[in-house]
Each structure stands twice: as C-alpha cells, then as structure tokens.
Amino acid sequence: MSSTVKHGLFLLSFLLLIIGCTQKKNSEKSPEELSSSLFEGNYKVGDYEAIVYSMHRTFEIEMQIFAQPMMFYFDKLDDEGNYIYLSDDQSMRFSMKPDHKSGTFYEINEAPLPVSKE
Predict the structure, then answer these.
(1) 101, 83 contact by CB (below 8 A)
(2) How far, in Å, CA of 15 to CA of 112, rounded?
(3) CA dihedral over 108, 63, 52, 41, signed as positive or negative
(4) Domain definitions of the chain by residue range
(5) How many CB atoms lie within 10 A of CB 114?
(6) Which alpha helices (H) appear in 23-56, and where do they start and end?
(7) Residue-wise over 19-46: b if at least 16 C-beta within 10 A, else e?
(8) Which CATH class is domain 31-117?
(9) Strand pairing partners for 27?
(10) Digits of tens for pLDDT over the chain (118 positions)?
(11) How far is CA 14 from the centre of its chain?
C-alpha cells in the first residue's frame, strides 16, 4: 500500500472519529427540549399559587394574579445556566435554576418574586 493511500486512510479515520465524537447522541437533549419536562407542575410565585402546563415548546401558566392563563416560551440559558422563559409580549419572565425547583419571576415595573416548586 502506498504512503499516499495510508495517509488518506489515516485522515479518513481521523475525520470519522471527530464526527462521531461531536454528534449529539439520541439521549442528549437541547435545553429547549429539556425545558418541556422540567418546567411544569405546581409552583409558588411570591405569595401566589401557579400551575405550569408544558405544551410542546410553550408553557401555559395559570396564576392568581393573571386574569387569564398566560403563555410563555423558552428563550435561552443565561450565563449562569438558568433557564429563561418569556411571556408572549415580553413584559414578564421566569428565570429558573437548572433543576427548576427555584427561580425568580420578573414583571415590568414590579418587584421580583421568588419562585419555588411545590
């Protein structure tokens, strides 16, 4: 076998190894995919009760201070790894710790409220 063929096989093997190591495995999920199973259930938001329903990439939140359920969506992970959820009109947001057992609720012109999973 010539050195050119050996060199080509080596490069091909190396590229296949790199591609195999960098591809997302089936069991690995993106933060957006994980948020659907993490952000749901009963929460305490300040002194209020809230129920979060995961609805495939959006979240319906029923809370005593809302006249009707509000829709939120996963926006991003912040620099600390917290999950950020924004309301449709972007006037409100939840910042949730990675385990979604605690966080903070922000509303424009209002004091932040602590959030805890019940």
Answers:
(1) no
(2) 50
(3) positive
(4) 31-117
(5) 12
(6) 31-38
(7) eeeeeeeeeeeeeeebbbebbbeebebb
(8) mainly beta
(9) none
(10) 666 655 555 555 555 455 555 554 546 878 778 777 788 999 999 999 999 999 877 899 999 888 899 999 999 999 999 999 999 999 999 999 999 999 999 999 999 999 999 9
(11) 34
Query: Which run of H or E residues covers position 42?
Result: strand 41-45
Amino acid at 33: E
Q: Which amino acid is at 84?
A: I
pLDDT for position 8: 52
**Phi and psi at residue 34, to the nearest 5°:** -65, -35
What is d(CA 41, CA 98) in angstroms, rounded to the nearest whole number? 15
